[in-house]
Amino acid sequence: QVQLVESGGGLVQAGGSLKLSCVVSGSFFRDKAMGWYRQAEGKQRERVAIIPTRGSTNYADFVKGRFTISRDNAKNTVYLQMNSLKPEDTGVYFCTVIGLGYWGKGTLVTVSS
User: Fold this and answer.
1) What pLDDT does 38 receive?
2) Minimal CA–CA distance to 94: which of 27, 44, 30?
3) Does residue 93 contact residue 36 with C-beta atoms inside 8 Å?
4) What are phi and psi of 87, to 5 degrees?
5) C-alpha span between 94 and 48 (Å, rounded)
6) End-to-end distance of the chain based on CA atoms, in angstroms?
7) Do 6 and 82 contact (CB within 8 A), yes or no?
8) Are 97 and 37 in contact (CB under 8 A)?
9) Mean pLDDT for each 10-residue chunk of the chain (113 residues)?
């Protein structure tokens, strides 16, 4: 059974940093692109960042220069380093296996002004 477990969320002041982690069960991890999405209350889920198995990462315009996605294939883990956080970054952050439809339950990030 495939499981994705996010962690690292919390409450932080504007301008602060958080690092999210997502541990993925399954031997397919190193062969699949991974993504982070977020959903603010009352809004649709939106893509934040994608990391392929090789090649360039991809970021939404609203996080470029502030967030960094990375992966450790030896640990089946994908990370999202979030710097210079803004109140509008508040939401539940989910990781997903691109193309397979697997999602974690999410981790809540709250940025206070």
Assistant:
1) 98
2) 44
3) yes
4) -55, -35
5) 10
6) 40
7) no
8) no
9) 96 98 93 97 98 95 97 97 98 96 97 97
